[in-house]
Write a structure and sequence with these properties.
Largest sheet of chain B: 2 strands, antiparallel
Oligomer: heterodimer
Number of domains of chain A: 1
Order of helices and strands of chain A: HHHHHHHHHHHHH
Helix content of chain A: over 70%
Structural class of chain B: mainly alpha
Largest sheet of chain A: none
CATH superfamily of the largest domain in chain B: MetI-like
Largest interface: A-B, 91 and 91 residues
Number of strands of chain B: 2
Shape of chain B: flat
CATH class of chain A: Mainly Alpha
Structural class of chain A: mainly alpha
Chain lengths: 284, 417
């Protein structure tokens, strides 16, 4: 961002100070993520940057912690990864179906008590996780679903639906309802209209809601800590235990993989957002 | 409608007004039917257990169930002088049953909450009661320890008679109800919860403030830069936003530890001596630093979306009318960004006040929040009714802010990503 030639010197200085501050904040935001990469390739067992690494000595780097992550003895990560994906996938499916259908109803102009219902549906996002955890734990314990995959999936559906509701209602707010009326006037039944007309148009919103729901479930630890038994451990729970007990470099290898995963999700979310804006005709 | 105008009828002969109302009702019902599955699901699995916590928090049946006969016998006791032999006998029978079930330890913990000094005398009673003879239990129990002959202790037991009480809420703010039924604060050195509430509010407030101070300049930069640069910089905001919370906390643990990167850097620059490395983790500082970075995107995104809508020509107009850049910023630009500031601050504050994971990992003893205390009582002391009471107090605070948020920003205006 260039400054006009006539800018007075003290404003010029202020402008560079401002840019410097912004640079520092961006650094503060992003740098902590990058400290994980080099350390996950550490040949030593310590979580510090060794002298060898500073000299870029190839012997100071190794893949041993990645090997440990995959092949390690009494390796918990395999089971954790399997559980995490299983739970996240089913929680996402549940959240997307319930959330999308609810969003369709909420976007209807006939919807009664819209404000209070919307506030209720969004509440799992606002209520502190520890309280949701306690409440859901009480319910699942009574229902006999504690320490089962079903219980955790149900809990994660609760946490995921607000995101789906928000993204889909946002997509529907720019939705031209005359297209569904046109379909109806041409003899299509409501279900057919939804599948053929509405769904393709709101799909970006649905998928980005699904991404949020997936990431929420995949990353969630508080509720799983309450609900999980030994067989339901997930990646975040393993990381949590590891971080509390001994900070081993294997955790950093897992963290690196998770950062790569979140990069993929970020790219997907960004592409979806653009596509959604194009479909809704919003141009910047 | 005046009687002169004829009612408009549909082809079926029904007045149009009635017919329209009927259609509207049907549409309302259809819309509601779509929302119903999710609403029902949330009501059963989520809302009702939260309401159930309300019952849990006042549930005080532990002592009532432990001493059933005692409380029946105590009904006739006026509480002025020592209870009669009847009460002592009932207490002895209840107590023997508890010893058989090995539950007398729980009772002593519960009674000790009510009045200090119960723990030791119950232990002593347990030992001595084995050699009790039948009859005249009053004398025998009073002979175990002088406190058993103190009417205060019997009053304390009687106070625990009702199955429901709000004592857990009082305990949550370091208060209790004394013998005369007045609310009093606990002794100075035993006040822990009030301190914790204050600390939670303080940390949430300052984290919100730090987030605001850091987010404002970069949101402004992102909103004013040309697309191709701002998209690139936006990644710096969105990548942490999408990254696992535990990964980010782990990276802060590596950075802030005594042999960590930040301390290494400070020693290398000579700002800090090698033997005086800063302690930035397992204390309040760690909580502040990590929580600010983790919650920063939640401040940047609402600010950015508001700033994006502010036309640059407004600032140009201000300048052309003779305002210096600072005046134009303060008088024109800043007021327009207030909705974004409100939205971002409330969101960050709500999230910060209930934070659990990060304080638990980097907070140590001085940097933990109320959530950590709730988890502690859920998992370690198993005092679930106290955990519920604390949780509901926190929830009440959060819902109040949520309500304000809804009024000011509108819940459907939450922007994601």
């Amino acid at each position: 961002m260039g400054l006009p030639k006539y800018t007075e010197p003290h404003y010029r200085i202020w402008h560079y100070v401002y840019l410097f501050i912004c640079g520092c904040v961006f650094f503060f935001l992003i740098a902590p993520l990058f400290v994980i990469f080099p350390l996950s390739f550490n040949a030593e067992e310590f979580l510090v940057i060794t002298d060898g690494m500073k000299r870029l000595d190839p012997d100071a780097f190794s893949l041993r912690w990645y090997k440990d992550m995959v092949y390690g003895t009494k390796n918990p990560w395999g089971l954790a990864a399997k559980n995490s994906f299983f739970i996240a996938i089913f929680a996402t499916i549940g959240a997307v179906i319930l959330g999308t259908v609810a969003a369709l109803g909420l976007s209807s102009r006939y919807m009664p008590y819209k404000g209070i219902i919307m506030a209720t549906l969004i509440s799992p996002m606002i209520v502190p996780l520890i309280i949701s955890g306690v409440a859901i734990f009480f319910f699942m314990a009574k229902a006999g679903l504690a320490a089962t995959h079903t219980g955790i999936v149900l809990a994660h559906i609760i946490l995921g639906t607000p995101f789906v509701v928000i993204t889909v209602t946002a997509t529907l707010s720019g939705f031209d309802h005359s297209v569904t009326r046109a379909a109806a006037s041409l003899g299509s039944n409501p279900v057919n209209t939804f599948i053929k007309i509405t769904l393709p148009l709101i799909l970006p919103g649905v998928i980005s809601g699904a991404l949020f729901a997936f990431v929420t479930s995949f990353d969630e630890v508080v509720i799983v800590l309450f609900l999980a038994g030994l067989d339901n451990t997930t990646i975040p729970v393993q990381m949590w235990t590891g971080l509390r007990e001994q900070l081993s470099p294997t955790i950093l290898s897992v963290a690196t993989c998770l950062i790569l995963l979140s990069t993929l999700v970020l790219v997907a979310a960004e592409l979806l957002r653009r596509r959604s804006e194009r479909i809704r005709g919003i141009r910047r | 409608m005046s009687s002169e105008t004829q009612q408009i009828l549909t082809t079926d002969g029904i007045p149009l007004e009635v017919s329209l109302k009927k259609v509207e009702r049907r549409n309302k019902f259809k819309a509601f039917l779509l929302v119903a599955p999710l609403l029902l699901f949330l009501l059963i699995v989520y809302i009702s257990p939260i309401i159930g916590m309300l019952f849990n928090s006042v549930d005080d049946r532990m002592v009532t169930n432990a001493l059933p006969k005692t409380f029946i016998a105590m009904e006739k006791w006026d509480g002025k002088e020592l209870p009669s032999e009847e009460v002592f006998e009932a207490f002895y029978i209840d107590f023997q049953k508890l010893i058989e079930e090995e539950k007398e330890g729980k009772l002593s913990t519960q009674l000790n909450y009510e009045k200090n000094g119960f723990k030791s005398i119950i232990k002593k009673l347990r030992r001595k009661s084995k050699s009790f003879e039948e009859g005249n239990y009053k004398e025998q129990i009073m002979g175990v320890h002088e406190r058993w002959a103190d009417v205060e202790y019997w009053r304390a037991i009687k106070r625990r008679a009702p199955s429901y009480s709000y004592s857990k809420y009082l305990k949550g703010v370091d208060m209790y109800q004394n013998e005369e039924g007045k609310f009093v604060q606990v002794e100075e050195d035993r006040r822990i919860y009030k301190k914790l509430w204050v600390r939670t509010l303080k940390i949430a407030f300052f984290v919100t403030l730090f987030c605001f101070l850091m987010a404002y300049p970069i949101a402004h930069l992102l909103a004013t830069l040309p697309m191709k640069y701002s998209n690139l910089l936006m990644i710096c905001v969105l990548l942490p936003f999408w990254t696992s919370l535990l990964v980010r906390t782990a990276s802060w643990m590596i950075l802030l530890q005594q042999q960590g990167v930040v301390n290494d850097f400070l020693v290398w620059t000579g700002l800090v001596a090698d033997d005086k490395r800063l302690v930035m983790m397992y204390n309040e500082t760690g909580t502040y630093i990590a929580m600010t970075q983790i919650l920063l995107p939640f401040m940047v995104l609402p600010l950015y979306s508001v700033m994006k809508t502010i036309s640059p020509s407004l600032v140009r107009a201000g300048k052309s009318l003779g305002g210096t850049p600072f005046i134009t910023f303060w008088k024109v630009y800043f007021p327009l960004t207030i909705p974004g500031i409100g939205a971002g601050s409330l969101l960050v504050f709500i999230l910060a006040i209930g934070y659990y994971i990060t304080p638990e990992l980097v907070g140590g003893a001085s940097g933990t929040l109320i959530s950590n205390m709730i988890a502690y009582h859920m998992k370690s002391t198993l005092d679930w009714s106290f955990a519920s009471a604390m949780g509901l107090m926190l929830l009440a605070g959060v819902l109040a802010i949520y309500w304000i948020y809804n009024k000011l920003v509108g819940i459907d205006n939450i922007k994601l990503g």
